[in-house]
Amino acid sequence: MPKTLVEKIWDAHVVKSEEGFPDILYIDTHLIHEVTSPQAFDGLRKRGLPVLRPKQTVATADHNVPTLNQLLPIKEELSRYQVDMLTKNCAEFGIELYGLGHPFQGIVHVIGPELGITLPGKTMVCGDSHTSTHGAFGAIAFGIGTSQVEQVFATQCLLQSKPKTMKIEVNGKLGKGVGAKDIILYIISQISAAGGTGYFIEYAGTAIEALSMEARMTICNMSIEMGARGGLIAPDQTTFDYIKGREFAPTGEAWDKALAYWQTLYSDLDAKFDSVLTFDAADIAPMITYGTNPGMGMGIQEHIPSTQAQPEKEKLSYQKALDYMGFDDDASLIGKTVDYVFIGSCTNSRIEDLREVAEFVKDKRKADNVTVWIVPGSKQVEQQAKNEGLDKIFEAAGFQLREPGCSACLGMNEDKIPAGKYCVSTSNRNFEGRQGQNARTLLASPLTAAAAAVTGKITDVREFLVEN
To answer: 126 among the known binding-site residues?
Structure first.
């Protein structure tokens, strides 16, 4: 019977399946950080249980960590407490921790792929919604709640109902200045922030196949922003080339055996999806959001859709979003002054993102009215950027290259956007208060963010680009 990629991986990990009940799904790799693990560890203590398979659990500190002076004690009391508790819990339960000061420390969804921990065909979970990032490798990866973190600690399994499947194809060639972040923001704008609810999404098509692994991670990362359970892309030669030689990737005979299996991981030609959507890459422009959910996005030259054009039941919330952002119906955002630019997060903090920004800003200078933070996704990305001299380019441009962490993606650490200020951000969420109380977030690609940094306003990056 023909199967989708999701079905192949899911079925291979079902420990027990019974009609009318969720499947018992085996989890290959459990990623943890300091925010959603403390209560789970406490639950184990109360029941006198160990972590069943600590070698299949990987920990790092990322959400609460400062991105300046990481060798000094953390100033914020709650952040310091949570990071300290992660250190104590991992030591007690025998879990590998890439904490502050470790050369492998970084955002959990950045270090998994770069270390060769994330592999095709795996099931992977983390107490973090953007775990879908790892699906770029042809893995079933999804976020879980704290009670489920405890469940995986104790059993290495989860009770999970098999999700519906959706295929999203993007075919054709992308225009200049358009990248992976624009693709996913465009898709979400077309199907809404709830359009993928209940589905596991497989991304396919010639435009997706042409993307690098880091760009594919950006696509899968934001699957959750359309309500999906997760997203994945079938592994191919681009995937295999990326994995080979990484720290924990298979080697020798183990590599040959793994590769033979990975090459079977694709949706069969006659596989049936519950839903199929198709988009033309030529229709996608550089994107920017104007509201308070990722579905409120538009091509950068477009005008904000009218409140009256919204469904009756959504008009009130739509108007509330525009009021929060300080925007009007039918307005253009071109030329809108911005205060901050944040380039980072698990969506866009990898070395390719930093290279793209550095290439664009070389021999340019940031506008005087803008504060620019560049936050690498890991210590390895930070070191690579320095090895390539990107830090010097950023310094000359007036950009601040900080240390790894989730940073201004969320108002959970010291890197917050002040109330009322506008931030063009390469992160994944523009919810009210996401980057700080009453902060106003406009999601965009690294290139569009870089253009805003050097002009001090919302700018169509294509004005700077020359056709090849």
So the answer is: no
Nearest Cα neighbor of 141 from 122, 115, 169, 113 is: 122
Cβ 64 vs Cβ 34: under 8 Å: yes
Tokens of 463: 């004005």
| H helix intervals, 330-423 | 351-361, 379-387, 390-397
Domains 164-209+225-233+266-283 and 287-463 share a fold: no
DSSP one-letter string for 132-170: GGGGGGS-EEEE--HHHHHHHHHHSEEEEPPPEEEEEEE
325-348 tens-digit pLDDT: 999 999 999 999 999 999 999 999
Instruction: Name the pTM for this structure.
Output: 0.97
pLDDT more than 90, % of the chain: 99
Q: Side chain identity at 122, as an amino acid letter?
A: K
Output the CA–CA distances (angstroms, integers) from residue 245 to 152, 214, 248, 251, in the order listed.
29, 16, 8, 8
CATH numeric code, 5-163+237-262: 3.30.499.10
Residue 157 is labelled as binding a ligand: no
Q: Would you kindly state where each structural domain of the chain is located, as residue ranges?
A: 5-163+237-262, 164-209+225-233+266-283, 287-463
Q: Which residue has the tokens 């990737």?
A: 249
Interval 24-75: pLDDT, tens: 999 999 999 999 999 999 999 999 999 999 999 999 999 999 999 999 999 9
Q: Tell me: the pLDDT tens digits for 253-290?
A: 999 999 999 999 999 999 999 999 999 999 999 999 99
Is 406 among the annotated ligand-binding positions? yes
Cα separation, 221 vs 112, whole angstroms: 13
Is 386 in contact with 393 (CB distance < 8 Å)?
no
Residue 137 has pLDDT above 70, yes or no: yes
Percent of the chain clearing pLDDT 70 (strictly above): 100
Q: What CA–CA distance (Å, rounded) separates 438 from 416?
A: 10
Cα–Cα distances (Å) from 103 to 31, 98, 221, 373, in that order, read 17, 8, 24, 21
Q: Which residues contact 466 (CB under 8 A, 6 or more apart)?
A: none
